[in-house]
Design brief:
Length: 499
């Protein structure tokens, strides 16, 4: 028997290298297949993107008479959630094609969640010239798109409903959409007239074509609003506070009917003067219907709380607004207006709070605290320490400079800082100065910027110590307070009697 001839060492080494190389290629191909089929391509490409499935996703259906669930059932498809979502979105886009808002040739943009079913569905029905972005994936998702890039833009419930700055979002949609193009938005949030009006105000540079309700993802999902807008030539209204650009030209708010309904549903004003106001008003706080407890305050640009006569941080901000006011998880910017220097130090290290160390007034001028000039220094310190100083007076009425403070035009300041699309809450405790500030707010139209107010009205109330004796500290009557509250409600402000 012949002995096998041994293979040369170099040939054996070559075979080993070939096998290792083949194995490495197989590993790379398997990895590539995984990346393509599971992870998708990056959103850095304008062409197409979808992302790892890691987020629970909510999705809307179309307005067709055949529900997406029926589409799936008729097709007898057994699908995982992401595949079902693609089927639902395919139904949505096919319906929009049938209505003439979308075509296969449209250059389109989908704004949705990081799992990307919207853009996948759009591609699968034949709209190949399309891109997808996720607001959770990027802080500036629109930056790579030029002006007037798209003829069709779609925002799912993972789009507008999740955005932190809705005005900026609306502006970017307007910028990237072509004239004559359509913007379709799905939202679960606009379930009351207030929030729906806020949403429509966001997109007032567009023409609204259609507003309808459509089914949710399944029978347990809430109804979804489908709103279709069109971008027309010559319409652009993103200039904030355009109604206030001409100084005091606006003197009366245009109060929509839904605001009147909200105010009508609020707690009624206490019409009869209470004999023990310190008890009656405290009890009435339990009856207060906060605006965010009645409506959705989404779709506002920024959220602001202004404490006028803030006094200590804990009194107006820490123990009340921070803990008790229903903010719906919105990030409020806080302004504390307090002229009494006794309280200034505690605001120095409070994050998110801007202290204005002045007195809110009807114009910019020097003011004085109205304190008993015969009071001892000990009593003066006690009065200043509590923050219960009487109403400020114009410098023309005083010659002493001991309690000099700087007053500023609060109405003018509010109009310079707050935008029409902001949500603004004001708490006012100014020791009688409200009878000057509120008329000034109404006169200038600045009152139109305030959504909700908590007002402590100061009048010659009955004293605790002495039955049937009124406080000499204030000259205004309870009837005048009621007139003040009524004027605010007539101007569309949900104002509450506060203590």
């Amino acid at each position: 028997m012949e002995t096998p001839t041994p293979k040369p060492p170099n040939l054996l080494l070559s075979n080993i290298l070939v096998r290792l190389l083949s194995f490495g290629v197989l590993v790379l191909l398997a990895r590539l297949a995984y990346v393509i089929t599971v992870k998708g391509r990056s959103c850095d490409s304008i062409d197409f993107c979808f992302f790892p499935q890691s987020v629970k996703y909510n999705i809307a259906t179309s307005t067709t008479t055949t529900s997406p669930a029926a589409v799936v059932a008729a097709a007898n498809i057994s699908v995982v959630p992401s595949a079902r979502l693609k089927t639902y979105y395919s139904s949505i886009f096919l319906d929009l094609i049938a209505q003439g808002f979308l075509s296969l040739n449209s250059k389109s943009l989908c704004i949705g969640g990081i799992t990307g079913e919207e853009i996948i569905a759009l591609k699968e029905i034949g709209v190949f010239n399309s891109a997808g972005i996720s607001l959770k994936k990027s802080s500036r998702p629109f930056i790579r798109f030029k002006n007037q890039t798209f003829g069709f833009v779609f925002s799912s419930t993972a789009g507008l409903d999740e955005v932190a700055k809705p005005v900026e979002f609306a502006s970017e949609v307007y910028r990237t959409l072509k004239h004559g193009g359509f913007f379709v938005v799905h939202t679960e949030s606009a379930n009351d007239e207030y929030s729906l009006a806020s949403l429509l105000q966001l997109f007032d540079s567009f023409t609204m074509i259609k507003l309808s309700e459509v089914d949710g993802f399944d029978s347990s999902s809430p109804l979804i609003h489908e709103i279709i807008f069109k971008k027309e030539k010559g319409v652009f209204r993103f200039n904030e506070n355009e109604r206030f650009l001409n100084g005091d030209s606006v003197s009366k708010c245009s109060v929509p009917s839904y605001k009147h309904k909200l105010i009508k549903n609020a707690e009624p004003l206490i019409r009869e003067e209470p004999l023990k106001p310190w008890i009656t008003f405290k009890r009435n706080i339990k009856n207060v219907k906060y605006l965010p407890s009645m409506v959705d305050i989404s779709f506002k640009n920024q959220y602001r709380y202004v404490a006028i006569g803030a006094k200590s941080y804990g009194l107006s901000i820490g123990s009340w607004f921070k803990k008790r006011y229903p903010k719906q998880d919105k990030p409020f910017e806080i302004f504390a207006i307090e002229a009494n220097s006794t309280f200034h130090d505690e605001y120095r290290f409070k994050k998110g709070v801007t202290l204005l160390p002045y007195a809110a007034w009807i114009r910019n001028e020097t003011l004085f605290y109205e304190i008993n000039r015969e009071a001892s220094m000990k009593n003066r310190k006690r009065v200043r320490g509590t923050g219960r100083n009487q109403a400020v007076q114009s410098s023309s009425n005083f010659v002493s400079v001991f309690d000099k403070i700087q007053g500023f035009d609060f109405a003018a300041w509010l109009k310079s800082v707050v935008k029409e699309r902001d949500y603004v809450v004001v708490k006012m405790d100014v020791e009688g100065t409200e009878f000057h500030l509120v008329p000034r707010l109404i006169e200038t139209g600045a009152i139109c910027l305030i959504d909700e107010m908590f007002l402590e009205c100061h009048y010659n109330r009955w004293q605790r110590c002495c039955p049937e004796k009124r406080s000499p500290k204030y000259s205004n009557t309870y009837v005048q307070c009621l007139e003040l509250f009524s004027s605010l409600r007539e101007n569309g402000v949900l104002v509450h009697q506060w203590w």
